[in-house]
Specification:
Blueprint lengths: L4 H12 L8 E4 L13 H11 L6 H10 L5 H8 E7 L5 E7 L1 E5 L8 E4 L3 H5 L6 H6 L9 E5 L2 H10 L2 E4 L5 E9 L7 H7 L10 H10 L1 H9 L5 E5 L22 E3 L10 E6 L5 E9 L9 E8 L1 H9 L1 E2 L1 E8 H7 L6
Parallel strand pairs: 3-13, 4-7, 10-12
Antiparallel strand pairs: 1-2, 2-15, 3-14, 4-6, 5-6, 7-8, 8-9, 10-13, 11-12, 11-15
Helix pairs in contact: 9-10
């Protein structure tokens, strides 16, 4: 999910020109319209907001960031200087989850740690597409050229680390290093879950990351071939500037916060904006979160990916989330009234 902030902002600005043709509506709500607003811990949202708001250059946002840095009462701050904006089109709301994997690994190979994480070769940066996943993992091109960052003990977990795009490696001495997205081979992503459904092994509602992992591990030969079904391959880079105890970098190149950061479609939701999330389904919650990340599968004004944190427990929780609900963006007052498409009552 790593993207450059200004690229995302440009995408948002370009998409604004086509929003009218998509029947996108912008309706200003009252804070009383937000289910559970009075019961949230707004201080946590303000803390997350402060992580990324200094990077917002628009005067509307930079002035609010300066106020937020004066340690105001969090709930009062949001109510005084923002207006809730419901942005919708014909698509239904959908919330999913993501997390930062943590794998066991080492900085040198051994009988246990046999599966390398690679940095991107120069040739892969100019060739698009480059070698497939199968060619990279079974061929000799990468061998002995110093592209390895670390080695891990589980090829299936490594595959899902590539899908997440970032993670931590727990070394034998207990130290942890963080890796982030460092490029790709340019081949399109093909879903392993969709392929299992196509083969008749599972029904669509049965498929999750844990189900896929368990099937591949139970069927090592067929499982390896199944992973090759996805020709896309992700390279990594060391992210040493981020302390291991902090969250991974999001699209704004700042650490994201567990259960307070969401990934959004910046064509509709400006990065850095507070977003009120009303998640329905199993284990519903109402929470003020901050739009600090993006994702290739996150498309539409009512689509968000909730960051759950690092490790196995976070991964299981994230993998189970696929629920409806509603998200309402908090915009600076002047911007809210300038973009409203329905009369404010």
């Amino acid at each position: 999910m790593i993207r450059h902030l200004w690229a995302a902002i440009c995408l948002w600005m370009l998409a604004a020109a086509t929003a009218a043709s998509e029947d996108v509506t912008h309706k200003i709500l009252e804070f009383d319209d937000l289910e559970g607003w009075n019961f949230d811990t707004h201080e946590r949202a303000l803390e997350a907001f402060l992580v990324t708001c200094p990077d917002l250059r628009d005067p509307d946002w930079s002035s609010l960031c300066a106020l937020a840095q004066q340690n105001p009462d969090a709930k009062t701050f949001f109510e005084l200087f923002f207006r809730p904006m419901l942005i919708e089109n014909d698509s239904k709301a959908l919330f999913t989850g993501y997390f930062e994997p943590e794998l066991d690994g080492a900085l040198s190979p051994s009988a246990r740690y046999r599966y390398p994480l690679y940095r991107e070769p120069e040739v892969a940066k100019v060739a698009n597409p480059w070698l497939t996943r199968r060619e990279i993992e079974t061929g000799d091109y990468m061998n002995g050229k110093g592209y390895e960052i670390a080695w891990v003990d589980d090829p299936v977990e490594l595959f899902f680390l590539q899908i997440q795009g970032s993670g931590r490696i727990r070394l034998p001495n207990g130290r942890r290093i963080r890796v982030g997205y460092g490029g790709s081979n340019g081949h399109p992503y093909r879903s392993i879950g969709v392929e299992l459904v196509r083969r008749g092994i599972y029904k669509p509602h049965q498929v999750s990351a844990e189900v896929i992992k368990n099937w591949v591990k139970r069927n090592p030969q067929e499982g390896r071939e199944l992973l090759f079904h996805n020709p896309s391959y992700v390279f990594f880079r060391r992210v040493d500037q981020v302390p291991p105890e902090a969250g991974p970098l999001g699209a704004m190149n700042r650490s994201v916060t567990a259960k307070r950061t969401i990934a959004v479609d910046p064509a509709y939701t400006p990065l850095g904006a507070p977003v009120w999330v009303e998640k329905k389904g199993a284990d519903p919650f109402n929470r003020l979160m901050i739009a600090q990340d993006t994702g290739s599968a996150i498309k539409g004004p009512q689509r968000a990916d909730v960051f759950f944190g690092t490790g196995d427990a976070a991964g299981k929780a994230a993998g189970m989330l696929k629920d409806p609900g509603r998200m309402v963006v908090l915009l600076p007052i002047q911007r809210a009234f300038a973009t409203a498409t329905e009369p404010y009552q």
